[in-house]
Amino acid sequence: xxxxxxxxxxxxxxxxxxLAPHASAAFFAxxxxxxxxxxxxxxxxxxxxxxxxxHITGCPYCIDVHVRKFKELGGTMEEIVEALLxxxxxxxxxxxxxxxxxxKAFEAYxxxxxxxxxxQQPDSSPSCYC
Length: 130
Fold this sequence. Notes:
Elements: H1 13-19, H2 21-37, H3 43-57, H4 60-72, H5 77-107
């Protein structure tokens, strides 16, 4: 395998469709409804949203596909960058605003850190799976 990401891999999607034909048909019907049947947002804006979402999810295949479609619809690189920076700013803001949960969690555990310089061994079982 020369690379994890290869555009030609997308040509194998029909193999996946054959393995789950009913779920695939439902997905493609949903995608058709979102992009083409609903007309509140122009397709160009939907493609811009898809580009940002692809960056958030980290899917290079989706980035390629949606950038191509966006460009074909007259989209510019400046619009893409502004949308990406908007998403980055929003994500950073969400991290900051979620910081109040750290304050609340810290306040929920009264007392001070152990005065001893001997490190306590943390419980090895995970309590958070994120």
